[in-house]
Amino acid sequence: MRRQRKAKIVATLGPASADQSTIQALFEAGADVFRFNFSHGSHADHQQRYDIVRAVEKAVGRPIAILADLQGPKLRIGQFADGKIELHAGQEFTLDRDPTPGNSERVCLPHAELFEVIAGGQALLLDDGKVRLEVQSCDGQSIRTRVVNSGTLSDRKGVNVPDAVLPIPALTEKDKRDLKFALELGVDWIALSFVQRPEDVLEARALIGDRASILSKLEKPAALEQLDAIVQVSDAIMVARGDLGVELPPERVPGVQKRILRVCRQHGKPIVIATQMLESMITSPVPTRAEASDVASAIYDGADAVMLSAESASGAYPVPAVSIMDRIITEVERDPLYQNMLDAQHETPLPNRGDAICSALRDVTRIIGAKVTVTYTSSGHTSLRAARERPMAPILSITPKLATARRLALVWGVHSTISEQVHNESEMVTAACQTAFKEGFAKVGDQIAITAGMPFGQPGSTNLLRLAEIWAQ
Question: Could you tell me where the DSSP H helices lie in 335-424?
Answer without folding.
Answer: 336-344, 353-368, 381-388, 402-407
